[in-house]
Write a structure and sequence with these properties.
Cytochrome Bc1 Complex, Chain D, domain 2; mainly alpha; 8 helices; extended
Length: 187
């Protein structure tokens, strides 16, 4: 009897004549696009000037370099968080989970996944040491080339931890055995 109730409900729903517009209301609603003209406003513009005294969100939130990896549209040069052992350990853990499959455990681009990629191989992160820290943060946040965004998997602190760990991998590349290199941002 219990199996019959959902089947009857499904059968009843198939008989409903609901227009498809009912389910797509948000996509089909009236709205203005950027730079479109408007008959509602006296000046004919749909885009409005912000009220006097408003400030950009980045100024209210704090350091835009921390949350976006950019300041004035340019990638930040240094990691804007304190790099310590705990951050590097978090970065190593997150790098191993999210990044190492393609970029390799050492960051050199050698991995099983990379060997099977036919379109474009992941770059060696070790050879990109001349790039600013914000470049790596933005690549993780927004994606880069065929690499998707990982902002859903890594929060802001974890992304900076991964960047710090990549910097440590880059610094360790030319270090002598037994020495403990420090990422360039903290020297």
């Amino acid at each position: 009897m219990r199996r019959l109730i959902p089947a009857l409900g499904l059968l009843a729903l198939t008989g409903c004549d609901v227009p498809s517009e009912f389910f797509q209301r948000m996509e089909n609603q009236a709205k203005y696009e950027y730079y479109e003209s408007s008959e509602f406003w006296a000046d004919g513009r749909a885009m409005r000037t912000p009220p006097e005294g408003t400030i950009p969100r980045e100024k209210a939130v704090g350091n835009p370099g921390l949350s976006t990896g950019r300041v004035n549209g340019q990638p930040v040069a240094a990691i804007p968080v304190q790099v310590d052992k705990a951050l590097l350990q978090m970065g190593q853990k997150k790098y191993s989970i999210v990044c190492a499959q393609c970029h390799g455990v050492l960051g050199d681009g050698n991995s099983i996944v990379a060997e099977n990629m036919g379109l474009r191989l992941p770059p060696s992160l070790l050879e990109l040491s001349n790039r600013p820290a914000g470049h790596f943060f933005n690549a993780i946040t927004e994606g880069y080339g065929v690499m998707p965004s990982f902002s859903g998997e890594l929060n802001t602190q974890e992304r900076w931890a991964v960047v710090a760990y990549v910097r440590a991998l880059q610094a360790a590349r030319g270090a002598a055995a037994g020495t403990q290199p420090v990422p360039q941002e903290n020297r």
